[in-house]
Write a structure and sequence with these properties.
Helix content: 25-40%
Order of helices and strands: EEHEHEHEEHEEEHH
Number of helices: 6
Distance between the termini: 51 Å
Largest sheet: 5 strands, parallel
Structural class: alpha/beta
Shape: globular
Radius of gyration: 18 Å
Strand order of the largest sheet: 4-3-5-6-7
Length: 203
Amino acid sequence: HEGTRLSVHSLHTRIFNGAGWDSTWAIPAKGTFNHQQLMGLRKVAIEHSYKDLPTSPESRSRVHLLRDSRTRQLGNSGKISEISSRFGFAGVYPERLSFPEQIRLMSEAEFVVAQGGAAIANAIFMRPGSFMVLLVADYPEQETFWRNLLEPFDIQLHFIVGRSKGRRKLPRALHSDFSVSVEEVESVLDRRLIHRPKHDDWN
């Protein structure tokens, strides 16, 4: 009411609407986000969440986020890891880190290669202008979802779309295993790291 003074110890607000699929399992939810709230979360998290962690021996500017899961397995992940390692990327399983460690990892990274999965959401902690290459299966809903989340943070995204194996009927097909073109991954990393295109040329 007008004139009423409130003492608030914690405030919970909704920052996301449209997770997953609608009740008919037919219409992909593309996700709408409250980026003002997310940017506030990002600022507080980076300023405070890992300040008490031991000093990191070295900053990892190039990170390859690996995925330890039984769903959405990348069939040729070994070959992709070989390529990313050759370009100086450090392979990391984010689920094996604490949340503050994950925040520090992403806030220090300038270039990330990642397979589609929940860990990509931590890209909100990357610095503006950073690059992320996303390895995803051939469902356009994934690209729309991640662009809606990350582009307002000025994260430059490039999608390498692979071919799903087995199930083609949504929504379970989103969790199918898939493979991506090894040649395309190598070409993208070479163009970005060796030839260093302007942001406008990235996609």
